[in-house]
Amino acid sequence: MTATRTTYLDNAATTPMREEAIDAMMPLLSGSFGNPSGPHHVARAARAALDEARESLAAVLGADPGEIVFTSGGTEADSLAVCGVHARRGGTVLCSSIEHKAVLAAAKAVGGRPFGGTSGATASGIVDLDALRSELDAGGEPVSLVSVMTANNEIGTIQPISEVIEIVRRSARQAVVHTDAVQAVAWLDVADVCREVDLLSISAHKFGGPKGVGALVVRSRVRESIGPILHGGGQERDLRSGTHNVAGIVAMAVAAQYAAKERDETAERASALRDRLESSVLGRVEGVAVTGSASPRLSCTSHLRFEGVEAEELLMLLDRRGVAASAGSACSSGAAEPSHVLQAMGMTPTEARSCVRFSLGRTTTKDEIDIAIEAVVDSVATLRG
Ligand code: PLP
């Protein structure tokens, strides 16, 4: 029996690590294994690697090295932003209704809420700026933090962060602006976004780094507006206690450097492949719609709705043919709950359950896309037949 070849189209869930990042982390797991907070030469070697990683990551993000706070990933960076500002400043936390659960749940935990309620997005997958404006203008308890993601993890739509900032600066000057840029680093120049916002989250495994490591950029102008959520030895300028994951941090910095260097070329290749996937599927399968097609989108994401098809069944058939895709965010796929993002855009639960996300990555090839196209065409025909 021939083994089924894997066609990996779930890069928004996680990406394969870059060889360069693996190579960079190995020496930190063996020879230079020290705790960077220690006093001796073994510790100093680890400290030097950590400092160098901090500088190179800061350069990619357009931040100062002192503004980088290393975390255990995107979820912790988001929690630190939301809960850390709330711990220091109190007030109301507002976020968009299409945030990742890492922001939505953190906001809920501190009594915050999505602006525009559970339907605060347009049908094309963009946050409802009018809802934000009216919440901020309504008065009441001062808003301490507004969080809007740079690009959505399920449908890939790029959010109007500059406009969000303009609205917040005009109507709630005291509010800190956070963006979850976890999905954006491999595809957009995040330095442009970082320049404007106060806090920005990233996660290494979305751009060729290891899982379990990320960072929150804390612009120095808001350093006094945020407190720690983990208490202990006072690492990361008292904002994130805990022994550093030096190997992971070094690998993340290397992955970020390569991602930035290759970004334009990778994005151009991915968008051509994504267009090939969409035009072929739309041309050969009836009743397919591309979610968010009227909005600016990351070039890696193709989110398709197949009328009358259960996404879970389609994903199972695709998987049997070696095609790995997903129904949305990794945390909620498999759960019966329809996506909160799609419902915020006005889809019914049935419509939301008929959507599949194909997310391309730097390693995606034309052959893989062609395999995926055939698998989608056949599998949808089987399900509808
Ligand atoms: N934010 C977004 C937009 C994501 O897509 C993810 C992961 O899917 C996270 C946060 C959580 O990141 P991590 O897996 O590093 O905790």
In short:
The protein is α/β, with parallel strands linked by helices. It is built from 12 helices and 12 strands.
What does this structure look like?
It is built from 12 helices and 12 strands. The two termini are 28 Å apart. It is 42% helix and 12% strand. The longest helix has 39 residues, at 246-284. α3 (74-89) packs parallel to α4 and α8 packs across α12. β5 (143-147), α6 (161-171) and β6 form a beta-alpha-beta unit. The strands form 3 sheets. The chain has a 7-stranded mixed sheet, sandwiched between helices. A 3-stranded antiparallel sheet has the order 9-10-12. The mean pLDDT is 95. It has 385 residues and is α/β, with parallel strands linked by helices. It binds pyridoxal-5'-phosphate. Pyridoxal-5'-phosphate is lined by residues 73-75, 78, 100, 102, 149, 153, 180, 182-183, 203, 214, 329-330.
